[in-house]
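Format notes (please read before filing issues)

Several people have asked whether sequences and structure tokens are stored in separate files. They are not. Every record keeps both together, in the order shown below: the sequence lines, then the token lines. Line labels are part of the format and must not be stripped during preprocessing.
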Amino acid sequence: MGGKRIAGPPPLGKMPDMLPLSALLLLAAIQAPGAEAPQSRPSPFEGGLEAVEPRGLRLRTPGATPGYLLVNPLNSKNAHLVDLDGNTVHTWKTQYVPGGACVLLPNGNLLRQCQEPDNPRFHGGGIAGRIQELAWDSSVVWEHVQATDQLTLHHDFDVLPNGNLLLIAWEYHSPDEALAAGRDLHAVVEEGLWPDTILELERNPRGGGKVVWQWRAWDHLMQDRNPKKPNFVAKADHPGRLDINADHRFEPREESDAERKKREEEEKKMAALGYAGGGAPPPAKGPDKPKSKYKGDWMHTNSVKHHAGLDVIVISSPELGELLVIDHSTTTAQAATSSGGRHGKGGDILFRWGNPRNYGRGTEADQRLHYQHNPTWLKNADAGAPRLLVFDNGMHRPGDFSQVLELELPYASGKGFELAAGAAFGPREPVWAYKDAPLFFSPFISGAQRLANGNTLICSGAAGRVFEVTPEKEVVWDWRNTLGGEEKPTEQGGKAPPHALFRAERYGVEYSGLAKLKR
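Then the structure lines:
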């Protein structure tokens, strides 16, 4: 297929999307202020990542889906619309660096989460605290702030059919509360535990809003360590509950010196990527005390999406390696229990996928998701079994590669999500998958979008690469982000590579939100 390419760089498919960690460590050394390039052997990376991967449009073919790309670079206060030639056609200028998701509303306004400075407690990649609606001219027409030491917004939101917003928030629980709820003593840290909560906000046109519904992970915990503490059950008998020790139960209780050194090496690799991750541990006490490997942000929920037909919500917990589906048809009171709502299970988990050993019905070999992001419901499947598209990052998976998966969920009308006795939730295999190992790899952030014509738009966030593939997995459009990077990273919110993107979304040319765009 004929297409438009930029002359000069190596052919598409020969250029790494995201380099292995060893290469990134080398790049970090090359690019560090005052650092000298290693002289012991020639390096193909001299000159930095930009020299290896020129930014801008790399490929455009007739198969590319018409429309405009919305990008909100992590190291910038500005959001942009980009056309298929890679030209910026509109910019919103804001006061804050992003705090996760950003969408173009049907009225042409921008709805965007951003980082509220100086949070009194919470920290880490994806922190927000403020959500704003901006008019086409960048003026703020509505905003809501939730950034206290007890509850802080982070990562993502979704707009419900009635105009209300679904929001993710960290909810603080003290170390004593965590211990009393069955958290293992060795995994209790000074910053406490931050289980996630989902809020439904009814917006006040004058600003702010009212929470009209809430689901709390804290209400659906289980533990199998101590029969004298709450929620003591056998994991395999309660797949609708979250193991409060799931983030660490398969690790040794005590770290050996060798294990600690290995962990610290991995932390250095992530620092070389320029990303602080989902919450750094508090400073160690004393000059010789190593940092704890555990943290308050034990779920790190990074996505929330509503399915209108079933009135359910999917959330993504990368730390647990799972997608979790919960019932939105409940009242807040029912959502705190295991009964009620359209599906009859209150706020318990209706479906989960990615890591079945978390609920005692699988082994390490059965884990399918590794630090995944951005599950979305596929609209063309509303009439049958629901389907999800998810970006599986691959962090901590053997081999450096990411993949995009399409899943058909085991759902029967009138019965709900099906689960055989003693078995794990299906499906065993995705109905569609895209990977290009080892060239396609983004260990954090990122996302995927199914376009109206069946193509899939993929945002490889760490590299700032956005590309479009057909159902047959042919790349028909490829662009490397040229925008952003003018703001210094914040220690509170984590750091990211210069052109990194949390997500990117394509809007078709007929979308009403583009009506003000002069074209």
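For reference, the curators noted about this record: Helices lie at 21-31, 49-52, 175-180, 257-273, 332-335. The mean pLDDT is 86.
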